Amino acid sequence: MLKLKRSPFHSVVEHEMETMVKVLEHGPLGIIEYKFYAEEIANANSTVKKAVENWKRNEIIERNRPVLKDYLN
């Protein structure tokens, strides 16, 4: 049988998927009852912060485009 090499990226994705299954298998209460690790919370906060920064940057770019300028406040 051929054994495939797993990249670190695939291991991380697999771990995240397993976590999601554990959290969601009990329905909405699973999210409330699941004890998130500090690292998971920090990663989520970092992701949200980056998303907000990107959104603000894109909003400035869109506002300065002449084509869309009339449609944005």
Please outline the helices and strands:
Layout: H1 8-24, H2 28-33, H3 38-63
Describe the structure.
The chain has 73 residues and is an all-alpha fold. Helices cover 67% and strands 0% of the residues. The protein has three helices and no strands. It has helices at 8-24, 28-33, 38-63. The protein is elongated and about 50 Å long. The termini are far apart. The model has no long low-confidence stretch (mean pLDDT 78).
Features:
single chain, 73 residues, 0% strand, mainly alpha
The coarse overall form would be elongated
What amount of the residues lies in strands? under 5%
The largest β sheet comes out as: none
Total strand segments: 0
For the residues shown, what is the average pLDDT? 78
Please estimate the helix content.
55-70%
Distance between the termini: 62 Å
**Segments where pLDDT lies below 50 for 5+ residues?**
none
Order of helices and strands: HHH
Radius of gyration: 20 Å
Strand pairing plus helix content: what structural class?
mainly alpha
Query: What is the overall number of helices?
Result: 3
What is this entry, summarized?
With 73 residues, the chain is mainly α. The chain has helices at 8-24, 28-33, 38-63.
